[in-house]
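Lecture notes, structural biology module. Today: joint structure prediction for complexes of two components.
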Amino acid sequence: MTGGMMLLEILVAALLIIGAAFTLIGSYGLLKLDQPMKRLHAPTKASTLGVGSLLLASMIHAFASGDASLHELLVMAFLFVTAPISGNFIAKVHLHRQRGGKELPPPPEEKTWATYAEQ
Amino acid sequence: MSMRLTRKLLPHPLLSALLVLVWCLLINDLSLGTVVFGALLGIVIPMATRAFWPDRPKIGRPARLVSYLLMVIWDIMVANVQVAMIVLFKRNEDMAPNWVVIPLEIRTPEAIAMLAGTITLTPGTVSADLSADGHALLVHALDAPDPEAVRDDIKTRYERRLKEIFE
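The predicted structure, tokenised, for the full assembly:
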């Protein structure tokens, strides 16, 4: 095995461990945090840096072994576009459930938040 | 006449180009057949969905958009480590979760969508709602003893740059 190959394998292994660690911390946060809105913060980590470095590892491995593929870039792009939308939906569900309960800070211009607005 | 025809055939040139690129990446191949089929999709899909997207977003400075994306990726990495530390080592009682209201200066829907997405992707903050008139964002922060600082940070770091790009 050449030195360059060895270095690449170490890089790929390191990226895999970093990605796995962040995904694990994301899942642990889901268990540990104690309020619905706080829990929402944990998975956003897993889906950005966690999956990001796993995909980067996959890409480097594919390039090193000769059959280069750019599918990982697409996965990352789709994930980055869709993750905020699902996060926003969960937050909206939470806002509906606590309607009339704990007060939110009002918006600055004397109107209500879109989720509470009358149609 | 020809201007109007292009507008009708290609209501969103950027979206069409993006569709061709995504199609080629999906097939993982850059042969003539793939590009032609991608171009076909790039023409049909924007035409079919034109009713949902009447305005054409203007990107004033594409180079700034690239540097903005790079900055966001860097911020995601830094913030990930910070939030991982909070999750691992801070007790639940010691955290200060807080709602943050961000009054918006940007008005373009695309720019607001991008700001909200950026806020959610950088860990530690999640954008939860928009005010009914679209002039303020409601953001939840995981550990923010000082909501004003979070607000000012988002406004100067992200909103100012998006305003330069889109408006």
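Point to remember: Chain A touches chain B through 46 residues (CB under 8 Å).
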